[in-house]
Known about the structure:
By secondary structure, this protein is α+β, with helices and mostly antiparallel strands. 21% of the residues lie in helices and 33% in strands. The chain has four helices and eleven strands. It has helices at 22-31, 70-83, 137-146, 189-200, and strands at residues 10-18, 38-45, 60-69, 92-98, 125-133, 152-157, 166-168, 171-173, 177-185, 208-214, 217-219. α3 (137-146) crosses α4. The longest helix is centred in the middle third of the chain and has 14 residues, at 70-83.
Amino acid sequence: xxxxxxxxxFVLNIVIARFGLGSKVISLAKENGITGGTxxxxxxxxxxxxxxxxxxxxxxxxxxxxxxxRNLSCRFxxxxxxxxxxxxxxxxxxxxxxxxQVYGTHITKNSTxxxxxxxxxxxxxxxxxxxxxxxxxxxxxxxxxKVGAKGATIVNGRGSGIHxxxxxxxxxxxxxxxxxxxxxxxEITEKVCDSIKDATDLDQPGRGILFVQNVAETYGIIN
Length: 223
């Protein structure tokens, strides 16, 4: 485990792209000095056709998780955004979130100079992760969009065997669970979380988990 100041130099890059492009994203990561990643199958949802926030229609998507040093993240995300044309509608998005602790990786001696991106139109966002029983993801999406969220991505939490679990962010996901990823502007984060909690009774034992992460960089968001 890395639990010192060096840990803060890491971010988790999340790329949501069209089905079949996961391997391309991993290749771009390697070209930018980043080794490896994880590809998950997700389903995109958009409730408001005029505000395609995540640019994800009802179709299969690939969610690619890539851990990297912070100084490599900006170049990687910019490369992905340009190569996969994320500036066009319905092509995808990518963003990064800070990492507090890292297990099973190795610190390199690359420069840790932070990203510099001076764009006054770039807004601040939070990412909301909700883990619920299978079949309840749509309820989460409806509750979020009702109060201003513009879209979401649903990932099935399924292991390779009936008695196996998969893991995301060190949380075990049983085969019958769904993970909902929502990106929202910071000012409406609390309102979206409250709406989801009310709709799904998350305060009750065994109903699910919701957690919020700060977002460091975003690319491909079209308002």
